[in-house]
Amino acid sequence: MAYSYARKLTIDNTKVSGSGSHSDFVVYADLTNNDFKTTGNGGLVQDGNGYDLIVSADKLEDGSGKLDYERVEYSATTGQVRVWFKVSSLATGSDTDVYMLYGDSSVSTDQSDAVNAWSDGWVGVFHMDHASGGAINSMGGTDLSSIHDNPTEQQTGKIDDAVDFDGSNDGYYNTTQNMSDTVKTEYSTSSWIKIDSFNAPPLGTWLQWNDRHVSGTYQAQSFYRAYNNGGTNTLRLRDICTGTSSTHDYGTGINTAQWYFVYGTWEGNPTNSSKLYLDG
């Protein structure tokens, strides 16, 4: 096995928040390059599925530095590749370099490893860019395959495609994914959202999980909701666990028709342990 070509990809440290370095951090890259086309289309990639186009920590031609990555798209004709890859250490004080290796005619099997790319505590990873049949879990667990009513798929999203719910009768996706006992003590979730309108209660829910653990009774529930709170556009995270609830509202400068990265955390039973973060 020998990759004939290497192209450096630099992660700008000024775009990395925090201090020190982040361990096992998953990075997204959307790249288009003529070299990444297949040889039949004027490029240097040998395999028609892009299997010999990999992400590596170094440019050694044997590919021994290959990183764990998930390939979500490859185009042999345009040279576009979209990948999520995990770096062992992402620095804030200096740039981090990785390499795209390509051009190995001996590679005919998929070198990506989505499960290990997302292995650091993730339970479910859903890109919501599916054409039909529900969202696939990149972790290899249960997919969001139970579709209620008719959400509109393959709409323009922040990163590739998205799913549009009209807020009236589009229903939801459902999964029987086992969230495990760990989730009942602490968890974090994240999603890109764009809201068309903020209505008065009842609140519009875009993410909810429930855990039936004891005799059919919900032992833990979490709701992410958007609503108009007395004239203020508001996002809400509400967690309930064995009778104890925690709520965090975010209502500063939230607009319609704008993409937001929403991150929520819950640290367990204590009241007010829910935290909701926007674009940060």
In short:
This protein is an all-beta fold and 280 residues long.
Provide a descriptive summary of the structure in words:
The protein has 280 residues and is mostly beta strands. It has 2 helices and 17 strands. It has a 4-stranded antiparallel sheet, with no helix packed on it. A 3-stranded antiparallel sheet has the order 1-6-3, with no helix packed on it. A 3-stranded antiparallel sheet has the order 2-5-4. The two termini are 42 Å apart. The mean pLDDT is 83.
Please name the defining characteristics of this protein:
280 residues; mainly beta; 2 helices
Order of H and E elements: EEEEEEHEEEEHEEEEEEE
Q: Tell me about the biggest sheet?
A: 4 strands, antiparallel
Structure classification: mainly beta
Mean pLDDT: 83
Which geometry do the CA atoms define? globular
State Rg: 21 Å
How many alpha or pi helices?
A: 2
How are strands sequenced across the largest beta sheet? 12-13-14-15
Straight-line N-to-C gap: 42 Å
* Beta-strand content bin: 35-45%
- Helicity, in percent? under 10%
- Number of extended strands: 17
SSE topology:
Layout: E1 5-11, E2 21-32, E3 53-56, E4 69-74, E5 80-91, E6 96-102, H1 114-117, E7 146-148, E8 152-156, E9 161-164, E10 172-174, H2 180-183, E11 187-194, E12 204-214, E13 217-229, E14 232-241, E15 244-250, E16 259-266, E17 275-278
Antiparallel strand pairs: 1-6, 2-5, 3-6, 4-5, 7-10, 8-9, 11-16, 12-13, 13-14, 14-15, 16-17
